[in-house]
Amino acid sequence: GENVEQHPSTLSVQEGDSAVIKCTYSDSASNYFPWYKQELGKRPQLIIDIRSNVGEKKDQRIAVTLNKTAKHFSLHITETQPEDSAVYFCAAEDSGTYKYIFGTGTRLKVLA
Amino acid sequence: NAGVTQTPKFQVLKTGQSMTLQCAQDMNHNSMYWYRQDPGMGLRLIYYSASEGTTDKGEVPNGYNVSRLNKREFSLRLESAAPSQTSVYFCASSGGFQETQYFGPGTRLLVL
After folding, report:
1. What is the pLDDT along chain A (112 residues), one digit of tens a residue?
2. CB contact under 8 A, A100 and B101
3. What are the residues of chain B with a beta carbon less than 8 Å away from any beta carbon of chain A?
4. Which residue of A has its CA nearest to B33?
5. What is the arithmetic mean of pLDDT over B1-18?
6. Phi then psi for A11, rounded to 5 degrees?
């Protein structure tokens, strides 16, 4: 089955700097990769996703890149703001099922 | 639309007691999921239902049972609660394969 590894587990950046979170997956047949943001005490919420037929997707300050050959995908946040502070989870959809396999999360702290 | 709703929001149980966590969605989604999230940890899949009438085990099914009551509702039952089941439980739903999962607000369960 699918396995997802996420790094780093914690990340501190200065306000205005960029943040990058990386995930690797094991099943080359996986084709859907969502990213979730979870604020303290709240539910996870989708911030961006990517399908295997594209290599990059952007939404304002957030972008995701996918390298299917290397089986890794990354979240890029530019011009970070204090409200970006949260835990971010990557996931890969297990091929042939309807399940997501989640990474272990990255706690992002944006320092003012 | 309310999206995904869960009841109760918070519950305290004694070891050995039973309870059912309720989840409902109004997005006409086919697939529904139950996750648990322990403090500082990621999301682990307990059970899921790819479509009405089907249920399958996830990563951590022991000690739990589920019922897909109809397309809208998916319940999670703890028959004999144990302290190890203290956690936050999230229900999610999605349209199906390669579709976004939307999470409910969560149920905080404390087992004494």
Report:
1. 788 999 999 999 999 999 999 999 999 889 999 999 999 999 999 999 999 888 999 999 999 999 999 999 999 999 999 999 999 999 999 887 889 999 999 999 999 9
2. yes
3. 31, 33, 41-45, 48, 50, 58, 90, 94, 96-98, 100-106
4. A99
5. 95
6. -150, 125
CB B63 within 8 A of CB B85: yes
Give the integer Cα–Cα distance in Å for B30 and B99. 10
**What is the number of residues in chain B?**
112
Of the candidates B38, B3, B40, the one whose C-alpha atom is nearest the C-alpha of residue B23 is: B3
State the virtual CA torsion across A38, B69, B98, B92 in degrees, nearest 10.
Answer: 0
Torsion of CA B62, B67, B73, B78, to 10 degrees: -40
Predicted confidence (pLDDT) per residue in B55-86, tens digit: 999 999 999 999 998 999 999 999 999 999 99
**Structure confidence at residue B33 as a pLDDT band (50, 70, 90):** very high
Name the residue among A46, A97, A102 with its Cβ closest to that of B100. A46
Q: Which residues of A are less than 8 Å from B97 in CB distance?
A: 93, 98
Closest CA to B107 of B11, B1, B3: B11
Whether A99 sits inside 8 A of B45 (CB atoms) is yes
Q: How many CB atoms lie within 10 A of CB A102?
A: 23
- Cβ proximity of A86 and A79 under 8 Å: no
